[in-house]
Structure formats: C-alpha cells, structure tokens
# Entry
Amino acid sequence: MDNNKESGNELKNRPLKTLMIHGEQYKTLYTNKFENRKTWAKPDARKIFSILPGTVLKVSHNAGDTVEKGELMMVLEAMKMQNTYYYPFSGKIKEMYVKPGDKVPKGFLMLEYE
Amino acid sequence: MPLKKKIQELKKRREQVQMGGGEKAIEKQIALGKLTARERVIKLLDENSFQEYDLFVEHEARDFDMDKKVLHGDGVIIGTGTIDGKSVCIFAQDFTVAGGSLGLMHSRKIIKIMDHALKMRVPLIGINDSGGARIQEGVNSLAGYGEIFFRNTISSGVIPQISVILGPCAGGAVYSPALTDFVFVVNNISKMFITGPEVIKTVLGEEISMEDLGGAKVHSEITGNAHFYAESENECFEQIKKLMTFIPWSNQTKAVKIDSKLPKKEYIIDNIVPDDPRLPYDVRDVIKSIVDGSEFFEIQEHWAKNMVIGFGRMNGETCGFVCNQPLVLAGVLDVDSSDKAARFIRYCDAFNIPIITLVDLPGYLPGVDQEHAGVIRHGAKVLYAYSEATVPKMTVILRKAYGGGYIAMGSRHLRADFVFAWPTAEIAVMGPEGAANIIFRKEITTAEDPEKMRREKVEEYKQKFANPYVAAARGYIDSVIEPSETRSLLLHSIEVAKQKCISMPAKKHGIPPF
# Structure
C-alpha cells in the first residue's frame, strides 16, 4: 500500500522490470495482479474438474469402469442445488478422486479418463 | 403542562434517543476503534450545521418478540448540514442499535433523505456501518434495500453520491455503495462482501479472514470497488471534504471556481519525460507541472496504477485528468485500467467537468489472461466513454501513442476538441521494432546480414514515422507544441470550449459495453 502522502515517491524507488510489447522492451513496474497472473495451460479433456465448489452426494462409477457418453457421472450439491453431471464422452475411467461426502473446491480434479 | 416542562420532556427524549444503542454498545463500538454514527456526522459536517430528522422513528416489527424491543431511531441517523458552507444530505447507520441492521423504518429514513437530496439537488453522503438486512423483518427489509438501490440509480449523474464504509457492509447492502459515485474505505474498519467468510467456509470449504476477503486494502488494490483509502476515520473525512471542493453540487452546476495559482517551480515539465520511449517516468509529475499549485487529487490511487485519474484545477476550475502511467506496466490499457478510465470519463461528462487526457502508452496489454478476461469488452468502454462525452475534451500526446491505444486515449477521431502533441510524440500503429519486423520482413530475412538490415529498417521506420508530424499532416493533431507551452494552451482551449455546444442523435440511452 502506497501511504506516501507526497504520492509517487514510494513507486519511484522500486526496481524497474521489463515489459515486452510489440517487440519493444519497456522499463516499468509490474502490478501485483500482473506479477501473480496464472500462465494459461491447455485444458486436458480427460481430466474432469469441478466447476462449482460443493459436496459430492453420489458417484456412479469407480476406477477401471467403462462409461458411456451421457451417463450420470455424479451428483454434486452446490449453491443449494443438487447438480447432476454426465460423462462428456465415452471411455474408461483411470482414476476417481472423489467419494460421496467429499467437499470439493472449485477447479478440483474429480476424475480422470484413461 | 406548561411549555417549559414540555420542552424539558423533549430534551429528555432527545437525549435518550441520541444515546443510540446505549452505553455498553457505544463502548463496544469505541473498542473496535470506531467512532459512533453521531460523532461521524458531526466530524464530517461544518460545526453546528447538522439538523437531524426522524430522530423519534421507531421500528414496527412485531414478530419474533421484536415488539418488546426498543430500537432508538431504528439504527440510522439522517439529516442535512453543510460542508464548506454548502448544503448536503447525509445518513449514518448506527451499529450500536441492533448492529445497524436495516429494517423497514430504517430504510424509510434513508429513503426520505435520498428523496430530499435529489429534490434539492444537493449531494448525498451515506455512512455505512451495518450487519445487513434485519432478518426478523423479512421481506420488508429486502424491500427497503430495493427502494434504496432504485434511488441510487435514479440519482446517478444528477447529484453526487458518496458512500463511506465505516464498518461491515455485507450482502445486498454492498450494492448501494456500488451504485454511487465514490466509495471511501478505512483500514481495519471497512468490510465489504456479498457472502462473508462464514458462508464461504461452510459452502465452499475455503477459509479466509474478513480483512483478506473484503477489507479496505482489498477493495482499494484488488477489486477497484473503493476509490479512496484512509488509515483512520479522521483522514477519511478529510479526503471527503477535499473531494467536495472539486465537484459540482449537481449536474446543473459547475464546481466552485477558486483563485488561480501557478504550478510549483520544482516541477519542470521539460525534465520529466525521458527521450527514450522505453524508459519510464511518473506521469503525475507531468500533471503537477501543469495544474494550479501543482495540486493533483488522485482517485483510485492504489488500483490499476497503469492508469492515473483524478482532479486538478486549471485557472481555478476543476478538470478531470485521464493519463497513462508509464511507470507501471508501461502505461498499457488492460481490463482494469480501461474500467477505471471509462467510468471516470463518464463521471466528468455527467458533472460538466472538462477532461484532459495525457497520452503515453504502447497499446493494450498482451496476454491470455487479458483476452480471456474480456479485454475487448472492457477496452471498448474507453472508446464509448470518450465518444459519448460532450464536455470539453483536451488531449496531449506526450510520447508513445501506438495502435488501438492511440485511438482510445481521447483521439481526434473520438471527438477530442483539441489534440496537442509534444515533439517527442510517436503516433503509429505500433512501435518501430514491431512495425519494421512486419513491413520489411522480406528484406530482413533475405539480407546477407539480417540483424544489420533489421536495425537499418527499424531506424528508417523511426525516422519516418516515430514522430508527431505524420499525424499533424493529416490534421489529426492540431499543434505540435513545446512541453512548456502545455499549460497555457490547455488554459486557452478550456476558455475557447466554455460555450461548447454539440447535439447528439436523440435516443433513450446507448448500450455501453459493461
């Protein structure tokens, strides 16, 4: 937090970093948001992550099971709703990471296809 | 009963009610490092100017044994008073009375003073310190919030609305401040969130403190929900009073003009901007070398620092400054800085405040996170806001004005009234490096010494295009000026633009990219 009343002095004393835009390197400071930004990674379709935080109520299959596209995958209670999730495509389950009763945060790896 | 006795009774009643939630509750409030609602109102307003209304209002809840409870003033103080001699309407929630919770009568008091403010065309100041809806009053309490939000919206752009968060402000309650012009927060005291840490923990399993979730720093640095951050309530009140000196009392008036002052001698405009476009400087020094008395009142100082916004005076009159800040992220436009600039431009336009734009940016910030966060939609807000604004618009290009950034930052094409450029200005689609690599790709790759050829071509491009004269040749900028002429030219253009009158096509309203 910049509490310096003669504003700017605190900023001016920080070491500069480099920002590359259109082939040009600029000497400047980073914001915390920029510094902590997540590097994007291509999502792996075989990994199913929770899109909401909640409690797992029901899991239909176990590791090793073969599943059909559209079959019930699990019921996740989130936002006061029992949300049903269906398999996005057919395949064999490599690993099931959740069981009924588990509380999962958003973006939690729940199961993985082979 | 003789009058004397009746007056005594009135005094007694007043004293009783003015104690709010009583001594114990007040002690608790003080222990939290907070002032009481009444102290706040009195400190903020001119001495002896506060006139209170609805002091004797009582709640009318009957369920859940509420009929046995006495809630003095129903947990909120409303009234009128003056700041710097000019009238304002004010309400202050009293946390010592049922946690400042909002019930039907509480909301009716706030609504009364809001209606008053709009009718009288005076600013509304709301001091928020409340646990939220009074659950015992059910839908009546929700109705109260709804009526407040409606009035915030209808009053928006007509009278200034200022929200001061001096305690918790949670759930639906946060939407009132969000609908107002300026939000003030104080370290360790202000807390704003839609769902609190308890709910987040039980529903989501995430543990976080109130401070980390929605404290003053969070809203000043990360979310951009707050506009002013203070370390203490007293500092906060000083900030409010200072802001009030810069803004008009309604959209029908102008801010009070004060005596003109020259900028301080220590800000030497020729010495601030480095010649090398890759080196940073603090654009606030440029502002201070232009404005009266080198006094710049910055807004949202701690959020999206790559854009600087705020008020300064030119010849005693308030102007809004919108400036790229090369010191942070090279002054790029990104999601946050676009939001910050666009909203401020619309504020200035609504309240008859001329806009001065200082340009020095390499363009938009590249990155997957930016694209996926909708930088197209957010960046478009800046175009929309500048195009729509009919107040006088003056733009000075200090150095770089590349690509979409050139167009967005108050360009002639978005109807800036006056566009000036310093001799250091580089107005082009992109920087010389990037441009030469594309335009001369063939020459570079087929050359015997590609690196040498590349450097030659970059230099060639620099000579031809990295200057203000190509744009000046088309009339896109009105004058290439010496930095030291900036203040006098801006003063001149503000004067010329005094009677500015343009008409826009009739419409109900546009559809800005939110």
In short: Chain B has three domains: 3-246, 269-427+467-499, 432-465. Chain B touches chain A through 48 residues (CB under 8 Å). The CA atoms of residues 197 and 208 of chain B lie 6 Å apart. Residues 104-120 of chain B form the longest helix (17 residues).
